[in-house]
Amino acid sequence: MRLLLIEDEKELADALTAALSKQGIVIDHTMRLADAHELTRQNIYDVILLDRRLPDGEGLTFIPKLRRAGVATPIIVLTALNEPMERIEGLDGGADDYLGKPFLIAELLARLRAVLRRPANIVQPCIAVGRIVIDPLHLSVTIGATPFDLPRRELLVLVALAKRKDKTILRSTLEAAVYNYEEEIQSNALDAHISRLRKRLADASAGVAVHNIRGVGYLLREE
Amino acid sequence: MRLLLIEDEKELADALTAALSKQGIVIDHTMRLADAHELTRQNIYDVILLDRRLPDGEGLTFIPKLRRAGVATPIIVLTALNEPMERIEGLDGGADDYLGKPFLIAELLARLRAVLRRPANIVQPCIAVGRIVIDPLHLSVTIGATPFDLPRRELLVLVALAKRKDKTILRSTLEAAVYNYEEEIQSNALDAHISRLRKRLADASAGVAVHNIRGVGYLLREE
DNA sequence: CTCCCAAGGTTGCGGCAGCATTGCGATCTA
DNA sequence: TAGATCGCAATGCTGCCGCAACCTTGGGAG
What we know:
2 copies of one chain form a homodimer. Chain A is α/β, with parallel strands linked by helices. Chain A has helices at residues 10-22, 33-39, 62-68, 84-92, 105-116, 152-163, 171-178, 189-203; strands at residues 2-6, 26-30, 47-50, 53-54, 57-58, 75-79, 97-100, 127-129, 132-135, 140-143, 146-147, 169-170, 208-213, 217-222. Chain A has 2 domains: 2-116, 3-Layer(aba) Sandwich (Rossmann fold), CATH 3.40.50.2300; 127-222, Arc Repressor Mutant, subunit A (Orthogonal Bundle), CATH 1.10.10.10. A 5-stranded parallel sheet of chain A has the order 2-1-3-6-7, with helices on both faces. In chain A, strands 8-9-10-11 form a 4-stranded antiparallel sheet, covered by helices on one side. A 3-stranded antiparallel sheet of chain A has the order 12-14-13. The first copy, chain A, is elongated. The structure holds a DNA duplex.
């Protein structure tokens, strides 16, 4: 793990460097915001420790600059300015945590771990078929960049087919995906939905088609 | 935004509920870990506030249980146990932040914002749709440069929709975002809010519209 | 090749669930 | 106390969906 320490008190910086190094953390140390700006250009840090009162300015001003540059690295502010209002200022200024001096190294380490533990963004599994993208979690369908609205039952059919594209879905499986036990159907309602879904897909040039396997079921395929 | 408060001091809980409600936050309150476990099953909370000394156990033991259940909701520990070692214990126990009692509501709010800010939307903490800009952390809406005031419930609806613009939000999800368990509704109150929100958006030429997907839910879209 | 039948496709219709709107009274706030 | 907000409910409307009638297609038998 690599950490950027922006701190002008030499003694504290040395103590931190020593302590954190023992934890296997790689530390870059600078005393000036100008240098820090340069150092963060490559976005190699896992976390940044930031003092407020620095020779070339207020540390907090560094945060929005960093964020505007698209750097999402977590920032913990370390400072003697530890009044409640100052803490609020720091946190609302974009810091991820705020620790008043003096502090125990052990608490800093705990806060480092807490900040780094944040869950990575869970990537939503989307299904792409032809020109359409289906997000089964959000029940949304987009075609190119524009949303593609569907009635509920047709949406359910499409999602069921898309989840296993190019594979045949038994007619009975499809029915189970669209209807629950209380609303058993006694007609060709499913066929009707398929028909209307086909029309919509064709009108939108979706690049996919619903095929029928006679006597077995249906499948979704690019075309 | 919906928050779970696990706290057995009735006075503090009431004060927090009152203060946070004014910020537009929907709160569920419980005094017992057992209830909390049940309440978190549906994963509808944006953040959890957790006391340590609770009638049925140490609050910290709740965290690993939650994480094992796959719930990644940020947790802020609120407690009188505020020695450095206790803070370390809390943070290493899985808390995302740790705030000792007594504290200023304002600082709690700032820490809430800090925790909620990461990691997903660091680059874009504000949501722009049409002519309006929504800050889900501060629950503020501006249209052009002028603030766009909304009643609390309509604001909650708008924010919930805006957080996932162009995605369908289930009706049940919307209800969960706007109402807590004590204020379950038995009418079409949600529809009424949507209707009034629509009117306001139209009057202000906001450039966005709330669409309905019949039988599924609603979505926010530029127009 | 033709015929036949069953499986699938299409389409109009009517019922009704779900949605939109609005007024009213209660509650809360300034 | 005046005004804003909110839950509630009555009303009207929209369009989905099940249904069924009718059409098309595929493949096997003669």
